[in-house]
Specification:
CATH topology: Glutaredoxin
CATH superfamily: Glutaredoxin
Distance between the termini: 11 Å
Number of strands: 4
CATH class: Alpha Beta
Helix content: 40-55%
Low-confidence stretches: none
Number of helices: 4
CATH architecture: 3-Layer(aba) Sandwich
Shape: globular
Order of helices and strands: EHEHEEHH
Radius of gyration: 12 Å
Strand content: 15-25%
Number of domains: 1
Largest sheet: 4 strands, mixed
Length: 87
């Protein structure tokens, strides 16, 4: 299974939903980058995604987007192949 990296904050309900879906799909470990604890990470997140909100989710080297994007990917049946096959 590919590495999952997620920019998060402590009080984000969308982050919690995204983590729950990933865990339901078998992701054992998620590298969380807490932008509320390290504000410089928000700048890095914005530079690499073009977005300001959390969560921002990467599977392998692929930027999936936020929570709604993750759920849409799952609904299309594309999440599991991405978890297995991302670069």
């Amino acid at each position: 299974m590919n590495k999952v990296r997620m920019y998060t904050s402590a009080v984000c309900p969308y982050c919690i939903r995204a983590k729950a879906l990933l865990q339901k799909r078998g992701v054992a470990g998620i590298e969380e980058i807490r932008i509320d604890l390290d504000p410089s990470q928000r700048q890095h997140m914005m530079a690499s995604t073009g977005r300001r909100t959390v969560p921002q989710i990467f599977i392998g080297d692929i930027h999936v987007g936020g929570c709604d994007d993750l759920y849409a990917l799952d609904a299309r049946g594309d999440l599991m192949p991405l978890l297995r096959d991302a670069a």
